[in-house]
Each structure stands twice: as C-alpha cells, then as structure tokens.
Amino acid sequence: MEWLKKNLPKIVVAPSFAVLLWFVYGFIAWTFYVSLTNSKLLPNYEFWGIHQYIRLWQMPRWHVAVENLFIFTILFIILCIFIGVILSIFLDQKIRSEGFLKTIYLYPMALSFIVTGTAWKWILNPTMGIEKFVNQLGFENFQFDWLVTPGMSIYTIVIAGVWQSSGFIMAIFLAGLRSIDDEVIKAAKVDGASTISIYMKIVLPMMRPVFMSAIVILVHLSIKSYDLVIALTAGGPGISSDMPAVFMTKMAFGRSEIGLASASAIMMFATVSAIIVPYLYSELRREQDVK
Amino acid sequence: MKMKKILIAIFAISLVPNISFAGPKAEVLHWWTSGGEAKALSVLKADFADKGGEWTDMPVAGGGGDAAMQTLKARIVAGDAPAAAQVKGPAIQEYDDQGVIKPYNIDAVAKAEGWDKLVSKQVAQHMKCNNFTQYCAAPVNIHRIDWFWANKKVLDSNGIKMPTSWSEFNAAADKLQAAGIIPFAHGGQPWQDATVFEAVALGIGGNDFYKKAFIDLDQKALSGSTMVKVFDQMRKLKSYTDAGSPGRDWNVATGMVMDGKAAFQIMGDWAKGEFSAKGLKPGKDYYCSPTPSNKGYLYNVDSFVFYNVKGADKLEGQKLLASLIMGKNFQKVFNMYKGSIPARLDVSMADFDDCAKKSNADLNAASAAGGLMPSYAHGMALKGAQSGAITDVVTEHFNSNMSSKDAAKKLAAAVKASL
Q1: How many CA atoms does the CB half-sphere of B173 hold within 13 Å?
Q2: What secondary structure does DSSP assign to A200-211, as a single string?
Q3: CATH architecture of B23-143+301-358
Q4: How far does the CA of residue B231 sit from the closest CA of chain A (Å)?
C-alpha cells in the first residue's frame, strides 16, 4: 500500500507518457528512417542514403516553399505580436465595455483556418472582393490583386493569418498585463514617467515570459500552416504560395514520393527545432538563474 | 458468479472466428461523392445487392482523390486493404510492384467473360498486372479530356464557329475579347492548367510529339522547338482569361460559359454534367467539340483495382463486383450519369447524347489513326512523380511571365530530376 501511494502518480502518468513516446517520438524516428529510403508509393525499408535530401534540395518547388515559409513566419510573428501588444495595451486602459471589445477581437480565433481562408479568398478576389467594391465606388483604377499575382499571393496568406491570430495574441498579452503589479506603474507615474515610456521600459520588459509563449505558439502555427494555404490559395497561382506542409502532403499522397515527403518533413522538423530549442533553452536557463 | 460465467461465455464465443459463409462481401473505396457521380455509383450498389452481396461503402471525399489515396495507403500499410478501390493508370501497376495485388483474384472472371474482346486493347493494357498478363482491375468508363465547351448564343451572336485549328481559336478569341466577353473560362488550379496544356500539346505538336514527350519522356521533345510553340500558345490562352481565374474551381468556370460571361472552356467531359444539371442541351444551348488536333483523343479511364484479400466471402465479393462493373447495365447507366462513354465496346450508344456519340465515334477514328493517347494530366500516362514534375513547370509558366524557351528547358530538367 505504501509503495502504491508513493508510486501512484508515476503509474498514472506512465500510459500517457508511453503513448507520447511512441506516437510522437517513435514516429519522428520512423519518418527519419523512411526519408533515408527509396520509398515511392508505399514505405519500404531498404536503406538508400541521403539521396532524397539531395533530390529535395534540387527541386525548384521546394525552394519556393522554403522561401515562402520564411517570409510568412517572419511577417506573421512580427505583425501578430505588434498588433496584439497594441490592442492589449489599449484594452488595458480600464475602458468601458472591455469584455465586449475583447470578444470581438478574439472571435476570429474561434473560426477554423479553412473558414478564414475561404472568406479571405472571396474578399481578396479581384472580380468579386475589395477591388470590385472600390471600383464600383468610382475609383476605377484601384487595383488590389495580390491573391492572383504570383510573388504577392504569399502576403495574402500573411494578412489572413494575422487577422485570425492577432486577437489571440492580444488575449495572451492582456492576461500578462493584468498580472503586473499596479504599484510598479503607480511608482513610475510618481517619478514622472510618461505612459509610453512606462510601457516601453517597464511593463513590456517585465513580460518576457509572455513574449516567449506567444512566439512559440506562433512559430509552430506558421510552420504547420497547411489548411490556411489550401483554403486561400491552394499554393497558387501556380506554385507561387506553396509552403513546406503543402509540399509534403502533395508529394506523399499525390505523387507517390513518400521518401521525398519524409525528407521534407524532417527538414521542417529541423527548422522548428533550430528556432525553438535555443530559444527555450535560453529562456529556461534565465529562469533558473533568477531562482 | 453467474454473471461472470455468462461474460466468459460471451467472450469465448466472440473469439471463435466467424467461419460461416455469409454471401459475397466487398468494401469499396472511392471518391465519387458529388451528385451525379454518387448517383452513377448507386447503380453498381443496387446491382451488387440484387445478387445477394453485402456492399460496404467507403467514400473519401475531397482533394480530387488525394484524401482517398491517403486513406487507401494507410489501410494497405496496415495490412487491411479494401476489396476494391478507385485507382487508375500506371498507379495500378505501381501497386502491383509493391506486391499488394497478387494473386490477381479477378483474372479468372475476366478470362471466363472474355474481357480481351469486350474492351479495346489499349484499355485492357491499363487493367493488367503481372507484366501486363493478368487482369487485376476493371474499367468503368472512358472520359475524353480534350474538349472545347462553348456557349452557343455567344458564339452565334458574334458570328463565330467552333474552331478547327488553334489559329482559328486565337482569331475568335481576339474578336470576343474586343466585344467585351471573356474568351476563355479557366480555373487556375495546377491540374486544370495541365489539362489545357496537354490538349494544346496534342493539337500543336501532333500525336507523335505527344507520345514522345509525355509517354517516352524524350528529352529532345520536352525541350525542343515544338514544345516552345506549345508554351507560346499557353501564354496566348492566359491572356484570354480573366483576372479572377487563379484558384477557381472547374465547375465555376463551366458556369461562366453557361451564363454567357465567357465563351470557351477546355475541360474533360464531366463538364457536361454541369450543363445537364441546368437542363441545357448540346447543340441547342452549348457546343461540344474536340480541341483542334490531328485525330487525337486524350482519354482517362477510371477503374477499380482489386487488392489481395483473405476470406471466401471477400473473394466472392471481388469476383461478383468485377463481373458487375463490366456488365452492360452498369456500363450504360453509369456513363449516362457521369458524362463519359462505356469502356465496354458492345454497349449501344443509342440512348446517349450527341457529345457522347461524338466521343465514341472519335475514339474509334483516333484508334485507327494512332491518335489515341493517355492523358498525362489525369494520371493515365505517367507515374505520379513525373506527371507532377511536368505540372509544376506548366503551372509555373502559365502563372508568371517565364519565357517559353525557359519553360521548355525547365520542363526537360524537371522530368530528368524526377526519374
């Protein structure tokens, strides 16, 4: 009985730990192995070296996808955090009907990316969306056709993604702002600091952990982004707004290139790790130092 | 205590394998879920049930079959292949190479019913495994890809006839554009770009060129001057589309032709279903004619492939299903709904519409003239890796200002890299 009492937490956690170990890390290992084989239609397990990686990096389409990923991730994170911080600071000014406004900004998060993508596809379509509307208002030369312009279509995905996610980032920052002691702000005010410098120099630096959660959430959202691309542009026009996740699915199931698709999945995994792991590491170490 | 015994008994019974023979069974994976297609397939379900079979439907919608392929592969990897699945073209032989189709259970049915005589040689070839010796799939239909669909009223009021050459088409399109009508209704999705591209390639390059480029993957044909001309025509076609074209679904483009907003569309004969659904008649409300080519005919044969399954009831199910798919009733009724023509040669075409009759007549003519070609864009000519590589370049060229020469060069390089 005594033993059970002592080990009960471990026993309870063990199954979920085992499941996680197998279905996440086990399959990462499996994918990595498949990326080293010449798997075409179905996985086979004959070792083939790094040929798939060489093929992958020779494909112009993969380069397009990677370039788009960087454009999207950087803009998506910067814009989401920028808009989220501004909105949360405005809402933090003890205004009336805050709850109502918060709901309005947060609501897009309740939609799936598919809905967001489809709605924006119609809004941005030059023959029925904003462009047509403004033209009908009398501005006949107005043009807004990013959605159908190769090279610009990736920015429409940024627009839709930011529209969807910045409200959520706002909520995270608002929670962070609320957790900051009022006394600090009052003290700064007594010292004669302006509102802007209070936020820039005192409040925001105190919210480091909030930035961390926001960035981690946004980075993985952007690298995984699949449904938004599919619904909004489907990678088009042509292949100009292709992203690694779209590329991977297309190769695995549309083209019978499971080995190549696995190689691209591992590249995505490596990218996520390269960004997130050092960040987590430095942040966690800082926490330890503080202790 | 009693309860426990009962439970044990139930458990024990459940362990005994069900060995009683329960009639033919078949689990069928497909992606015919939209209106006309679902209706067409229900004919087969009814036939199957009439013969005492138990049909387990496994529809996987979405993604033009990509989602279905995803499910299918997962099932096969798990060692639980469905009895039959909607797979076509060289993918059939690809699955055979993986050893999941052997021992070709339906070959006996095919031999007994003499399928070799019921379908054309070229179609039969697609249905055979084991180095093209044994039947492992059953053909459902023949779709023609290289069709022009046009609004009759728009053409008549502008004094335009259905073009019989590409230069005629360009002249007509220029005239229409000047009159403020969108000459070419196009959905800018990669597979639709590819559909137009192969029709243009067959028309401008001719039958031998098409065969060299898209079946033999000859590097010279892929990068040569004829290919440059094909890309030139693609650029022309792009200029005849409207700004909203990228990303548009094919049936929306068909709708533009129906409404008279646009004049022409290039699409396979499933587009006819859209016209029929609105009660429009060929020759009266719209025109259908093949895109200009020298007796060429691009086909897409849908088929069901039969995997290796265990159990007498499932084997019976496969045999029954194969026999019914080739049955005259199914071949006729299914294809009238679907817009295609029967794969079986001896089905009367009398009840079909004019477009289908024309398709059937052209098929025979093309077969005799050596112009019967498998569609690359619809996965009949090449494996996924190669056809995908071609489509990447085609759609990139169509949607940018890449020069035709660069496109041809890129095309050859992309195909080489995919091999």
Answers
A1: 22
A2: IIIIHHHTHHHH
A3: 3-Layer(aba) Sandwich (3.40)
A4: 15
Cross-chain Cβ contact A41/B400 below 8 Å: no
Burial class from Cβ neighbours inside 10 Å (0-12, 13-18, 19+) for residue B66 reads: middle
B392 → closest Cβ in A42, A61, A145: A61
pLDDT for A178-212, tens place per residue?
888 888 888 888 888 888 888 888 888 888 889 98
Residue B370 has pLDDT above 70, yes or no: yes
Contact (Cβ atoms closer than 8 angstroms) between residue B248 and residue B186 = yes
Q: Which chain A residue's Cα is nearest to B384?
A: A255
Query: Is beta strand B182-184 parallel, antiparallel or unpaired with respect to B262-266?
Result: parallel
Q: What is the mean pLDDT of residues A114-140?
A: 89
Of B98, B100, B244, the CB nearest to A126: B244
Q: What is the pLDDT of residue B18?
A: 47
Report angle CA B114, B120, B125 to the nearest 5 degrees: 85
Whose CA is closest to B116, among B141, B140, B101, B133? B133
Which CATH superfamily, name and number, covers B146-299+377-418? Periplasmic binding protein-like II (3.40.190.10)
Q: Do B20 and B297 form a contact (C-beta atoms < 8 A)? A: no
Q: What are the pLDDT digits (tens) for A155-171?
A: 999 999 999 999 999 99
From the list B76, B247, B400, the residue facing A121 with the nearest CB is B247
Q: Is the pLDDT of residue B17 over 50?
A: no
Angle value at C-alpha B418, between B414 and B419, nearest 5 degrees: 125
**Which comes out higher in pLDDT, residue B240 or A137?**
B240
- The answer to whether the Cβ–Cβ distance between B69 and A253 falls below 8 Å is yes
Chain B residues in contact with A231 by the CB 8 A cut-off are none
Q: Determine how β-strand B84-86 pairs with β-strand B54-59.
A: unpaired
- Output B239-244 pairs: Cβ under 8 A, ≥24 positions apart: B240/B173, B240/B177, B240/B182, B240/B183, B240/B184, B241/B182, B241/B184, B241/B185, B241/B186, B241/B188, B242/A127, B242/B182, B243/A126, B243/A127, B243/A145, B243/A148, B244/A125, B244/A126, B244/A127, B244/A128, B244/A148
- What are the beta bridge partners of residue B321? none
Q: Is the pLDDT of residue B413 over 90?
A: yes
Q: A60–B190: do the CB atoms touch at under 8 Å? A: no
Extract the tokens encoding A191.
Answer: 């010292």
Q: Angle between the A153-178 and A113-124 helix axes, to the nearest 10 degrees?
A: 130
Tokens of B13: 């019974």
Strands (E), B201-294: 262-266, 286-290
Q: Residues for chain A: how many in total?
A: 291
- A234 contacts B244? CB cut-off 8 A: no
All CATH 3.40.190.10 domain ranges in chain B, comma separated: 23-143+301-358, 146-299+377-418
Contacting residues of A for B384, CB less than 8 Å apart: 254-257
Q: Which two tokens stand for residue A212?
A: 């961390």
Residue B353 contacts A, CB cutoff 8 Å: no
Per CB-CB distance under 8 Å, the chain A contacts of B97 are: 41
Domains of chain A: 61-290 (1.10.3720.10)
**For residue B77, what is the nearest residue in chain A, using CA coordinates?**
A42
Closest by CA to B102, choosing from B69, B76, B78, B120, is B76
Tens digits of per-residue pLDDT, B142-157?
999 999 999 999 999 9
* pLDDT of amino acid A184: 86
